[in-house]
Amino acid sequence: MKKVWLQLRREGIKVARCTVERLMRAMGLVGIRRGKGMKTTRSDKDAATPDDLVNRLFMAERPNQLWVTDFTYVSTAQGFVYVAFIVYVFAGAIVGWRVSTSMETSLVLDALEQTLWSRRPGKGVIHHSDRGSQYASLAYSKRLKDAEILASVGTTDDS
Question: What does CATH list as the number for 66-153?
Answer without folding.
Answer: 3.30.420.10
